[in-house]
Amino acid sequence: QVQLVESGGGLVQPGGSLRLSCAASGRIFRVYAMGWYRQAPGKQRELVATIMRAGTTNYADSVKGRFTISRDNAKNTAYLQMTSLKLEDTAVYYCNSEMSSGGDYVRRDYWGQGTQVTVSS
From CA 10, how far away is CA 117, in angstroms rounded? Predict the structure, then answer.
């Protein structure tokens, strides 16, 4: 069974930094795109950043210049380095990935369980 597990969330003051990790595990054949989304209370889930297998990245305008997405293909892991955090960055952050399993090699979309990031003074 293929799954994504996030870690690294927590409470941080405005202006602070956090690093999120997302590890894919299970019978994986290949990990394609990886990304981070977030959902604040009462709001829809929104894209934060994505990274292709070759390293091409895309960011939401609200996080450009403050967040950096990266990945380690050997470890099937993606990271989100968040700096200059603002109150409005408070949300549950979800990892997303398109992967194929070693069972049927079909590309599917997977989500992690989410990790809470709270920015508060």
Answer: 5
Burial class (CB within 10 angstroms; exposed 0-12, middle 13-18, buried 19+) of 52: middle
User: 88: which residues sit within 8 A by CB, 6+ positions away?
Assistant: 40, 62, 119
Read off the tokens for 96.
């997303």
User: pLDDT tens for residues 30-56?
Assistant: 999 999 999 999 999 999 999 999 999
CA pair distance 20, 111, nearest whole angstrom:
15
- Per the structure block, which two tokens stand in for 77? 């892991």
Q: For residue 36, which of 60, 13, 1 has the smallest C-alpha distance?
A: 60
Residue in this structure with the two tokens 């602070």, named with its chain if needed: 16
3-class secondary structure, 5: strand
Q: Which amino acid is at 16?
A: G
Rounded to whole angstroms, how far apart are CA atoms 118 and 83?
13
* Beta carbons of 2 and 110 less than 8 angstroms apart: yes
